[in-house]
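User: Batch of two.

Assistant: Item 1 of 2:
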Amino acid sequence: MEAEIADGKTYKEIEHTLYAKIVNMVDLEKAFSKEHHEQWQIRVAKTPMNSGEGTIRVRKTIPNIIDVANTVYVQTTKTPSPEDGGRDEVPIPTTLDNFVQFQRFGESGLIKDRYCFPAIGTDYIWEVDVFYIDGAEIGSGKYSEWVKIDLEVSVHDKSSPLPLLPFEVTDLIVSQKGYRTPEEDAIIDKLYDEVFRTKNKFLV
């Protein structure tokens, strides 16, 4: 996987997001790339005093999950792109100090490991985010069975059939936001509340 580009230019983000239980965690070892993420963000709401909404996120990335000497920090601003159903994002380099500010700002964050696999038959990449069980140390590999899976595509392929996943899963949710059943929405909401999100570290 190419390193995240943080050059201050606008990039188009159109992605499919899936949720599932991974059957065998050993399959993660087949990934061609892995890294550790900790990210915090603030949301900017649309109000009578501005002309748009979006998010500002700062992410810490540790290559190979444990290569802390090469940790990088990137701040990314995202705004909706209604004409194509995606988002416009602008990433720029930032610092540990800025990251700590966002740890304080954010009501919640995501702390996860990302494993990347080729999407067979395409030029795309499956990004598989796995989340630690409560109390597990970073790098321990003690993950929840539920994973979040992203596939970023071009605008031309956003309606194309999805390629096969690179491992066996159960309880797969492929419907996208706005097209899910109430039951699927309830499962995903519970995942974010109980598995995916980490509460603000500075609150007592």
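Item 2 of 2:
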Amino acid sequence: MSNWILGLTGGIGAGKTLVSNHLASLDIDIVDADIIAREVVAIGSEGLDKIVTRFGQDILLPDGALDRAKLREIIFSDIEHKTWLNNLLHPLIRQSITSQLANATSPYVVLSAPLLFENQLDALCHHTLLVDVPVEVQITRTSARDIVSKEQVKSIIAAQMPREEKRQSADSILNNHRDIDTVLAELEEFHETFLKLAATSKR
């Protein structure tokens, strides 16, 4: 894979989407692991066919799409089912990610993944950028955006890599609890740096 790859990550409510959207507006290709994770279980996909074979037609919504809530219930209550699902989906997701990264045509390409470090996707990247905010900001933003309780947000955060560990793992950190103009100005500085790093690596 010859493209220079930036791994972009951040905890829930940190503002990763703001960053990826802004980089996309600068004509940088974005490979979004969340979108790919939905695509590999879309109607007609190999992933969905295998899930139906294992769990039966009851795992589908009336329109034939995957009933994610029902699947979530099953895998949280049975570690064997969870392991089977991870063994099915992770290779499909990684295969699609590597294909899209290889086909990118922008000066560098962004791999956006909330679990970049947890799923070892940082191994595919030349550099990693963490979008970071304090945990209290994550909780406030997410509970307001997704209309969920603060307790639910806390449980999601608790299931992810601790914030301090992510900060230590990342090559660069963008602090996103400041005003948006300041954040985007710093992001554009990062962008210029990434352009130079990408150009240097291709010489």
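The two ends are 15 Å apart (CA to CA).
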